[in-house]
Structures are given as structure tokens and as C-alpha cells.
Design a protein that fits this description.
It is a single chain. The chain is of the alpha+beta class. The protein has ten helices and ten strands. The chain folds into three domains: 76 residues; 176 residues, Orthogonal Bundle (Helix Hairpins), CATH 1.10.287; 109 residues, endopeptidase domain like (from Nostoc punctiforme) (endopeptidase fold (from Nostoc punctiforme), Alpha-Beta Complex). The protein has a six-stranded antiparallel sheet with strand order 5-10-6-7-8-9. Strands 1-2 form a two-stranded antiparallel ribbon. A hairpin with a 2-residue loop joins strand 7 and strand 8.
């Protein structure tokens, strides 16, 4: 609305004065009395005050409107900020849930794979055990047959053996030994060894299954706690949870594919490294052989030289001492002193390599669920927790908390001392595709291939 001013009043006054003019005989005439002019002035002043009053009212309304608009804008900003915080919280909740649900999916997948492995190993064990028992029965029948036929020397020889290996050795030197019997003994021992190996693998697989089930239980309990917390915060959380489960399924498949590719690549790297070592060994052996031959040749030349000097001395009947020459030859043959080894870094310095080296000292120690003792027993996360603690580094106690601690690195950039999280399970990376970890109650703390399970993330706690 247009704002009125004193200029407007002056203009109005001029108009009013003009209208106050009277016409007499066709000529303009102004009001003749001061009373009339004062009366007109008061009327105009009244009109001015009324206009100013309207202006003030409008200005007041404008200020109220502007104040309301400002409050509205502040409310909008606050609401937008709250919405942003809520959305950020939902995004963080989704991210955490996807990670946890992916971890559970991976553990369940590992459990399924272990169950398949147990069934297959059980079948192989049963077959090997049956073959062992069948061959053993055949051997007993063979001994009984020889006893009944009067071949006592051969039968007694076998019966007096202290063990199967001893039996095979005795049979190997017996004059009465037949090729058939020797082959059967060899088959029996092979079957027995195979049964023992399958039995060992079966026990380890069962222990691995038990450990995975324990890790799954721990992970599920944590997820339930997180879900209950988020349900109280977000009204539409069930929708978010369903979406998180879908994302976790996709993410799990991607991780399994990536780990399979890493495993294949690592196998190629290991094969190439084995090839390099084999070639290096052959080259070293050839060089050693050449050096030995050169040494023998040099010794033979020196011996011939000394013999010739002796002959010359004897022929000339002189007292010259050939020691100087011998000493010179000896000096030439002396090896240069070995280079001084570099001083190793202090055991207490918190580097990834030192941490990895320190962790290896406890290989063979027991696995104990919930334990943190490096000597008396620890579970996977307790092992990582205690190893890092020795270097003055405090890390979370649980595997799912260690999975978000530090910073993430790729497998290609992984270094000794990094922590690999498989979903419910953690291990310390040693480099070269190897890890050390508290594995199972059966195997304890041991070495393993880094890709023996699907890798979820790799975390770096130092450097």
C-alpha cells in the first residue's frame, strides 16, 4: 500500500483552498474571512491526522505480518533441520542395519557351507573306514589261512609285529613275503591314514560349525537390540527394515563374488610365487654347485702349485720359504665379512608388522568363547583385542564393533596388522594372503588363508 506523506497534505491543502474560491460576476474570489480559512485548515488537519492514523495502522499490520513471516520461516528452517536430522538418522540406521544383516547372511551362508562340508567329509570318512576294516579282515583271514596251512614262520612274523608299520617292515624283509601280501598291507595302511585324515577334518568342520553358530547367536542378539532401538525412534521403521534386508541380500551376493575373485587371484599369485621360489632354488643350487666346482678346481690348482714349488725348492736346495705365496693365496681365498644385519624394530613399537609378528607367537594356544587371554584362551575378537592392548592400543571388544573401528582399506592395500572382518568373525592379516586368528575350540589359534571365508571389510587400526 502507498505510504502517505507531508507532501500529500500540502497538495490537499492547495486543492481545498482552490475549492474555497467563489465566483462573483465571473471573476475568482477567495474566502474573505479568517474564520472560514481557519475552519478549512482544521478540516484538512483532521483529514491529515486520520490518514496518518491509517498509515500507522497499516505499518503496524505490516510489522505483525513480517514478524509472523519471520517466525514461519524459522519454523520451516527448524522443521527442515529436524527432517534432515531424522533423514540422516534413518540413513545411518539403514547403513548400520545393512552391515549387520549382511554379516548375519554371511554367517548363515558359512554355516550352510560347513554343513555341506561335514556331510561330504562324513561320507568320505565312512568309506575310508569301511575300506580299512575290509582290508584288516582280509589280512586276518590271510594269517589264519597260513596258520592252517602250516606256514608258521610267516604267520608268527606278522603276528609278533608291534604295529602296522612294524608289520610292513618285517614283511618287507621276510623271505616268504608275497607281492600280494605286500600290496594288501600297503593298501591297508593307506586306507587307515585316509580314515584318520578324514576323521580329523570332520572334527575340525564340526568345531567350525559350532563356533559359527555361537558367532551367529552373538550377532543376532546385537541386531535385535539395534532394531528395538530404531523402532522406538522411527515410525515407519518396518519399511526401512524390509528395505535394509533387501540391500543386505544384494550386498552379500556382491561380497561373495568379490571374495571368490580375490581367492582366485590369490591362488594365481601363490602359484607364481611357488614357481619363482622353485626357479630361485634351482638357480641357487646351480650356483652353489658351480661355486663348489670352482672351489675344488682352485684347491687343486693351489695344491699343484705348492707341489711344484716344493719340487723346485728341493731341486735348488734352497731355504726359501713358500709361506708368503701360500699366505697370499690364502688371503685371496678368504671370504668378505658378512654385512651387518639391520637392527629390528622394538617389540613395543605399534606398527602393523610388529603387531602381526607378535600375534603369531600365540599360535597353538586354545580358543575359548568369551575369552581374552592370549595364553589360556580367547575367542576371535578377544584375540585381536588383547594383541592390540599389548601395544597400548584400545580397540572394541566385540567383532561387530571392531568391524567399524579404524578406517577401511581394500584387500589390495591390506597390510600386516590389519583386521579382516568376515561377519561375526575377525582375524589379523599377516600379508601374502595369510591370517592368524582364534579359529575354533578344536583348532585354537592358528594360521589360515585370508579368503577361507567371505570378507566383509578390512580395517586398519594403526598408521
Amino acid at each position: 500500500m502507498k505510504k502517505f506523506s507531508i507532501g500529500f497534505f500540502n497538495k490537499s491543502l492547495c486543492i481545498a483552498l482552490a475549492t474555497a474560491m467563489i465566483t462573483v460576476s465571473g471573476a475568482p474570489v477567495f474566502a474573505t474571512t479568517s474564520e472560514e480559512l481557519k475552519k478549512q485548515q482544521k478540516e484538512l488537519e483532521k483529514q491529515q491526522k486520520e490518514l496518518e492514523k491509517q498509515q500507522n495502522a497499516i505499518e503496524s499490520q505490516k510489522k505483525e505480518s513480517q514478524s509472523g513471516l519471520n517466525n514461519a520461516n524459522q519454523n520451516i528452517s527448524q522443521i527442515q533441520g529436524e527432517q534432515a536430522e531424522i533423514q540422516e538418522g534413518i540413513d545411518e540406521a539403514n547403513e548400520e542395519l545393512v552391515g549387520l544383516l549382511t554379516s548375519i547372511d554371511l554367517i548363515q551362508s558359512d554355516i550352510e557351507n560347513t554343513q555341506v562340508k561335514i556331510e561330504k567329509t562324513q561320507q568320505e570318512y565312512d568309506e575310508a573306514k569301511l575300506q580299512e576294516e575290509t582290508l584288516y579282515d582280509s589280512m586276518k583271514k590271510r594269517i589264519k589261512f597260513m596258520y592252517e596251512k602250516g606256514e608258521m614262520s610267516y604267520a608268527v612274523l606278522l603276528l609278533q609285529a608291534e604295529s602296522v608299520g612294524d608289520m610292513l617292515n618285517k614283511a618287507g624283509y621276510a623271505e616268504e613275503l608275497y607281492d600280494y601280501d605286500r600290496k594288501k598291507l600297503a593298501d591297508f595302511i593307506a586306507a587307515k591314514n585316509a580314515a584318520e585324515q578324514y576323521g580329523k577334518e570332520l572334527e575340525e568342520a564340526k568345531s567350525e560349525l559350532e563356533t559359527s553358530q555361537y558367532e551367529l547367536k552373538e550377532e543376532q542378539a546385537h541386531v535385535e537390540t539395534v532394531i528395538d532401538q530404531y523402532k522406538k525412534q522411527y515410525a515407519n521403521f518396518d519399511v526401512q527394515l524390509a528395505k535394509a534386508r533387501q540391500n543386505a541380500a544384494v550386498y552379500t551376493a556382491q561380497l561373495q563374488q568379490q571374495t571368490a575373485e580375490i581367492r582366485e587371484l590369490q591362488a594365481k599369485i601363490d602359484a607364481k610365487e611357488s614357481e619363482v621360489k622353485k626357479t630361485k632354488k634351482a638357480a641357487d643350487e646351480a650356483a652353489s654347485k658351480e661355486a663348489e666346482e670352482a672351489k675344488k678346481k682352485k684347491e687343486a690348482e693351489e695344491a699343484a702349485k705348492k707341489e711344484k714349488e716344493k719340487e723346485l725348492l728341493a731341486a735348488n736346495d734352497t731355504d726359501d720359504d713358500p709361506a708368503d705365496s701360500a699366505d697370499s693365496s690364502k688371503a685371496d681365498s678368504e671370504e668378505a665379512p658378512a654385512a651387518e644385519k639391520s637392527t629390528p624394530a622394538p617389540a613395543g613399537s605399534a606398527t602393523g608388522q610388529n603387531i602381526a609378528n607378535y600375534a603369531c607367537k600365540f599360535v597353538g594356544n586354545p580358543y575359548v568363547a568369551g575369552g581374552t587371554s592370549l595364553t589360556n584362551g580367547a575367542d576371535c575378537s578377544g584375540f585381536v583385542y588383547s594383541v592390540y592392548k599389548q601395544f597400548g592400543i584400545t580397540v572394541p571388544r566385540t567383532s561387530y564393533s571392531q568391524a567399524t573401528f579404524g578406517r577401511e582399506v581394500s584387500y589390495q592395500n591390506a597390510q600386516p596388522g590389519d583386521v579382516i572382518y568376515y561377519g561375526g568373525h575377525v582375524a589379523i592379516y599377516l600379508g601374502g594372503g595369510r591370517i592368524v586368528h582364534a579359529s575354533t575350540a578344536k583348532t585354537g589359534i592358528k594360521y589360515e588363508s585370508a579368503t577361507y571365508r567371505t570378507i566383509l571389510t578390512i580395517r586398519r587400526f594403526v598408521g
